[in-house]
């Protein structure tokens, strides 16, 4: 089983806009386009991927519990991936809430 490495494009310097657009999910979003919809698409795509990881871990857990899973390490890897993705999602959410609160504290 091959595990593909995580890659994160650089969002600074020249060409940053093209890097961000390359992160957009492959499904087309109907309606207006712009930075807000691209960010929203990224968030929804990330949540969909998190849901996919947790669903995979859950199905492998059921297979392990029923004795239908031949390699228990498949479940261990899937559960670890889902756990790390969940922790990262919570950390990103916390940072977004902190940033929002900081913006709201700014005096205009």
TrEMBL record:
It is found in: Bacterial flagellum basal body. GO terms for biological process: bacterial-type flagellum-dependent cell motility. It comes from the Bacteria. InterPro entries: FliE (IPR001624). One of its GO terms (cellular component) is bacterial-type flagellum basal body. Pfam families: FliE (PF02049). Residues 19-30 have a biased composition (Polar residues). GO terms for molecular function: cytoskeletal motor activity; structural molecule activity. Coiled coil: none annotated. Belongs to the FliE family. This is Flagellar hook-basal body complex protein FliE. The lineage of its organism: Bacteria, Bacillati, Actinomycetota, Actinomycetes, Propionibacteriales.
